[in-house]
Amino acid sequence: MSESQTLLTENITELLSEWSNGDEVALEKLTLNVYDELRRLAASYMRRERADHTLQATALVHEAFLNLREMQNFDWQSRAHFIGIAARAMRQILVEHARSHNREKRGGDLFRVSFSQVEQIVSSEPTIDLIALEDGLQKLAMKFPRPAQVVELHFFGGLKFKDIAEVLGVDGMEVSLRTVERDWEFARAWLHKELIA
After folding, report:
1. Any alpha helices (H) in the chain, and if so which ranges?
2. Does the structure show a pLDDT above 90 at 147?
């Protein structure tokens, strides 16, 4: 990590702390620092959605920020932690849109998530239903919470495995890079069995 990246990460962590303590100016500065990254993440999500999706990447970021604003007193640990939570917020927004769309269509076309542009979770299938993936992740989380978090942070959050190890190790427990890699492989196999078999 370069010196400027280290300073940016430290600055974001400091802004998260200040925001948690009620400083609204810190939230504005934080927004400026992470907006482009969240916009890229949202654009990545939207590329995997159906072509006629009514939600745009910018609107997805704004909805996620509205949800995050309500978490002012949250104990933010780091930039990676914030991005991970933002990714979860975006995923939940998209899943709710998918559920709403399906209710309107009464079983019409489901949202499809293409894995061709990112590392595949279920390697034998080029696409998978977003709602089915969400349901599968919830089942995985009930039995194996950490591997489910790894999928969420890596696939949906776009975090690298080393950043995921940092996020998962926030409660005084260290999580190694190798553990995260094993969790990823386990989760992929588990989801493959759950969603494809």
Report:
1. 3-20, 24-47, 57-69, 79-105, 130-143, 145-151, 161-168, 177-196
2. yes
